[in-house]
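Cross-check.
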Amino acid sequence: MAMMITPAIEEDNMSQIFIRPSRIGLIVRDPVSMTPLSNDGEWKPLDGKRGNYWRRRVLDGSVTQTKPQADQPKVEKPIVEKPKEETQQPVPELPKRQNKKDERRK
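Predicted model, tokenized:
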């Protein structure tokens, strides 16, 4: 039996779906931010690779498509980007440690 996934079309022409974990206590993580999906539900994209991920979660029963509550915003949480390598401090080299065996050989 195939499940029907019905997207909610937003003003900016991006397909999104409102989903929540199918069971209380089930942790379903966002594939990019690795944050757990809220038990109250969240809007998630249906476009691109992340959309494929959320479609698979609906089909395998991990999440359930629901209607949002009236006070639920239609904006997904922003993705936190990792700092660029330029901002990271270089790690200083430690002095080489001499072995006691090396000292005995000399």
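The first strand starts at residue 8 and ends at 9. Residues 7 and 17 are 5 Å apart (CA to CA). Passed to J.P. for a second look.
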